[in-house]
Amino acid sequence: MTPHRHLGYPGLAAAALVLAACATLPAPTEQLAASRTAIQSAEVAGADQSATVELSQARDKLAAAQTAVNAGDNDRARRLADQALVDAQLAQAKASTTRARESVVQAEAALRALRDEANRPAAPPAASPPVTTPVAPVAPAAPVTPLEPVTPAAPVTPPR
């Protein structure tokens, strides 16, 4: 028996159908473009510093997807491009979370400084030199005449 006879016609038809389906899958250009865009967004978000592992995985999977497209394995390329997209989105989310945490730490430090300033006892005012106002010279007054002495009056008794 030959190997072809062993499979039979239904087996050959199924194998041809599977091969035809694989050969007709289009290249995943949209998935590749979405993955590239997601990687660029993650880089802009700062994933190079805070999510290096995830960003590196996304780049590696995108490169492997491109290699799969070049080899004609569009199904594998699609899966790898989708994985690269998810890894890039994770990297961007981690980078955004890191930035948000840093902002919270800075805001808490500023709030703490404001509370410390508000709770600090007030310092006594600094002593300042007395303010002197220049006085204009006064003209001499007219001569004063002495008053006549006042004689005490008889005591007044209240009526009863």
Topology record:
Layout: H1 3-24, H2 29-44, H3 47-50, H4 52-70, H5 74-119
Helix pairs in contact: 2-4, 2-5, 4-5
Spans where pLDDT lies below 50 across 5 or more residues: none
Apparent shape: rod-shaped
* Element pattern in H and E: HHHHH
* Tally of DSSP helical segments: 5
Number of strands: 0
Distance between the termini: 161 Å
Kindly state the mean pLDDT as a whole number?
83
Helix content: 55-70%
Q: Biggest sheet, in brief?
A: none
Any idea what the radius of gyration is? 48 Å
Structural class, judged by helices and strands?
mainly alpha
**Beta fraction:** under 5%
Question: What structural keywords apply?
Answer:
160 residues, mainly alpha
Describe the model.
This protein has a domain of 92 residues. The chain is mostly helical. It starts with a helix and ends in a 41-residue tail after the last helix. It contains 5 helices and no strands. Helix 2 packs antiparallel against helix 4, helix 2 runs parallel beside helix 5 and helix 4 packs antiparallel against helix 5. The longest helix is centred in the middle third of the chain and has 46 residues.
